[in-house]
């Protein structure tokens, strides 16, 4: 083939002329660089390869990382594991055996991505998120994400989402907003972990987390500053009252003082808020994770104690009384997973009291069918969205819409032992969730989400609106 034939076949003469004219119109200071960029944008992006590997998450456990290659760039994403494997084989294996089972599961997912998923996505346009996610889901013949694993599917889906944003030359949160179908200018209120308990800490506190919500901040930057200052004042208070050994941190970076009473923990946080000078501007939230200490139909508030008093084995109705008392004594505005994952009756009872936001975690599992039932029965009034439970970006967006249509609050949440991927920060803004839960202002996998939100707010400038007092009703305009 001659040079002239080659030029004619690929219409290069016309394309180069168009690029030169564009450079002249733009008065480009570096015409060669401008023309190169113009030509690059003229070629549509297509997926050329998907490569996965095993990495370690924030707990040092195996997780999946994906690099999605297009003909223009490489986009990386990772997703936390779904947790420790369950079942008889896992139970009999012990801790070491469970870790090996999890590692094998991740290794299997890596192989499937490198073979089946990569082959299925080659040639697809990364801007077509719904089609990409459907192609991923079509590979899961079990239809319950058992073959690929929701975390593995999510890592691929997020990488594709990042590639789609890059091809459109817009920020990731803006691309997500486009997928949602609305504009994005809402920065979420952070539910910042300050005290850990439950199975996420070695103290006697039965509930999993005490969090602070800086709803009185004027913007996200101030909210994070308020949260960080309160966190450090809390450390000083714990040090003064319990000693240095009580300043150790739990799984989410919250402090784990040797306390067993919920009220004692809330009192410590209130004292820290007052010492920081933010009284009235910061609200409280708790993640009870009650499934972890539900035995039969009762809740053992001393489930971690070796010396049980026998006085803290509560019925579900007793728990409602406890929550009601806490809401009357403290600025407690959100209770996450207050009962067992299958206790729909008492979750409904608490929700109908309208004392605070009742957020479903284990109850909903970010599952559309469970959300539908909860909406119909008014079993809770907020969704805790854990995207690696859902499986793909498209499905995550759909459950957010489902919750928003029901006028629920939406709390986009990280996972215990998350990876350093900051995707949920962009998701919270793009979907106008109003709330984000990413742990303490401590630990890299937590801070990467908060720091990304600082960047997004800076980029949005005057268009960025902090949810603040509207944390439950934030919406994309």
Labels describing this entry:
single chain, 477 residues, alpha/beta, 8-stranded mixed barrel, 3-stranded antiparallel sheet, elongated
Provide a descriptive summary of the structure in words:
With 477 residues, the protein is α/β, with parallel strands linked by helices. Helices cover 46% and strands 17% of the residues. The protein is built from 16 helices and 16 strands. The protein has an eight-stranded mixed barrel, surrounded by seven helices. A three-stranded antiparallel β-sheet has the order 1-2-3, with helices on one face. Strand 8 and strand 9 form a beta hairpin. Residues 83-93 have low confidence and may be disordered. Mg(2+) binds at residues 287, 336, 361. It comes from Urochloa decumbens. Its EC number is 4.2.1.11.
Query: How helical, in percent, are the residues?
Result: 40-55%
Radius of gyration: 24 Å
Structural category: alpha/beta
Mean pLDDT figure: 90
Broad shape? elongated
User: Which strand order spans the largest sheet, edge to edge or round the barrel?
Assistant: 5-6-7-11-12-13-14-15
Share of β-strand residues: 15-25%
**What's the total helix number?**
16
The largest sheet is: 8 strands, mixed, barrel
Question: Can you count the beta strands?
Answer: 16
Low-confidence segments, given as residue ranges, are: 83-93
Cα separation of the termini: 55 Å
InterPro entries: Enolase (IPR000941), Enolase-like_C_sf (IPR036849), Enolase-like_N (IPR029017), Enolase_C (IPR020810), Enolase_CS (IPR020809), Enolase_N (IPR020811)
Pfam family, one: Enolase_N
Family: Belongs to the enolase family.
Enzyme class: lyase
């Amino acid at each position: 083939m001659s040079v002239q034939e080659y030029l004619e076949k690929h219409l290069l003469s016309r394309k180069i002329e168009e690029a030169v004219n564009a450079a002249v119109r733009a008065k480009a200071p570096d015409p060669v660089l401008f023309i190169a960029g113009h030509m690059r944008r003229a070629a549509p992006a297509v997926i050329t390869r998907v490569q996965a590997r095993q990495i370690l998450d924030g707990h040092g456990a195996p997780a999946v990382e994906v690099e999605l290659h297009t003909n223009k760039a490489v986009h990386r994403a990772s997703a936390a594991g779904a947790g420790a494997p369950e079942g008889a084989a896992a139970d009999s294996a012990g801790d070491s055996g469970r870790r090996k089972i999890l590692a094998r599961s991740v290794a299997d997912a890596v192989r499937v991505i490198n073979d089946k998923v990569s082959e299925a996505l080659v040639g697809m346009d990364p801007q077509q998120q719904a089609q990409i996610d459907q192609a991923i889901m079509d590979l899961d013949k079990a239809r319950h994400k058992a073959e690929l694993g929701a975390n593995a599917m999510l890592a691929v889906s997020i990488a594709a989402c990042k590639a789609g944003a890059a091809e459109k030359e817009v920020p990731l949160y803006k691309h997500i907003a486009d997928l949602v179908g609305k504009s994005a200018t809402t920065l979420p209120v952070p539910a910042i972990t300050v005290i850990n308990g439950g199975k996420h800490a070695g103290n006697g506190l039965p509930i999993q987390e005490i969090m602070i919500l800086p709803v009185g901040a004027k913007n996200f930057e101030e909210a994070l500053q308020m949260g960080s200052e309160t966190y450090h004042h809390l450390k000083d208070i714990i040090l003064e009252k319990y000693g240095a050994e009580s300043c150790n941190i739990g799984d989410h970076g919250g402090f784990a003082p040797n306390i067993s009473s919920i009220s004692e923990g809330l009192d410590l946080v209130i004292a820290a808020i007052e010492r920081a000078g933010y009284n009235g501007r910061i609200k409280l939230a708790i993640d009870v994770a009650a499934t972890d200490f539900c035995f039969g139909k009762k809740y053992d508030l001393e489930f971690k104690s070796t010396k049980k008093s026998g006085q803290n084995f509560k019925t579900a109705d007793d728990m409602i009384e406890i929550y009601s008392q806490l809401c009357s004594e403290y600025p407690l505005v959100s209770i996450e997973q207050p009962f067992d994952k299958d206790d729909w009756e008492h979750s409904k009872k608490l929700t109908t009291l309208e004392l605070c936001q009742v957020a479903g975690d284990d109850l909903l599992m970010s599952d559309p069918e469970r959300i539908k039932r909860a909406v119909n029965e008014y079993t809770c009034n907020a969704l805790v969205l854990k995207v690696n439970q859902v499986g793909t970006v498209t499905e995550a967006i759909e459950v957010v819409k489902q919750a928003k249509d029901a006028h629920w609050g939406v709390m986009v949440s990280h996972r215990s032992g998350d990876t350093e991927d900051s995707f949920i920060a962009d998701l919270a803004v793009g979907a106008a969730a109003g709330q984000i839960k990413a742990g303490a202002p401590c630990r890299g996998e937590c801070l990467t989400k908060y720091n990304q939100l600082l960047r997004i707010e800076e980029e949005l400038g005057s268009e960025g609106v902090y949810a603040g007092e509207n944390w439950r009703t934030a919406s994309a305009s």
